[in-house]
Amino acid sequence: MTEQGTSDTAKALKVRARVKRRKPAFVRPESWRYMRLKENWRRPRGLDHKIRRKIKGWPAAVSTGYQGPKIARGLHPSGYREVLVHNTEDLKNVDPKTQAIRIAHTVGRRKRARIIIEARKKKMTILNLKEAREVVEEERKVAEEKKAEEKAETEEEEEAEATKKKPKRERAKKSRGRKEK
Question: Which of 13, 40, 109, 179 is deepest in the core (most CB within 10 A)?
């Protein structure tokens, strides 16, 4: 992106934030009246519906006038366009300057780690890295535990070998001491 494009995007993001502050919370008409109706927006279609007719005193309806700038539509608050990634092949089509990746929630731990490694090599922004960090930390902990177990096993083997290699005299002395008591 050029400097002009970057500054336009930054301005558009600020305008979008300002518009969002002034925008009302659109709720489904009559949802405040009936418990069986959820608050998620549904367009009023009735012939005499007050919100559809924009009658004074009734809540505002969703309309294009509440949209943000065209440049800012579809942008993440960081200013990047989001790209959903399922595997390392998807990273080839991503432009690190203008796009940021979001790893799909269906991706497993092993493949997620590979995607993170590839993205870091290409200096890409990862939007859901917090979740991925936990995965990487868990893998690191598992690796450390395996190393600790292996180390403990080798120490036990060394101790066992050391007891086997003791001279016969020392073993004999210990056994005689027990018999005398």
Answer: 13
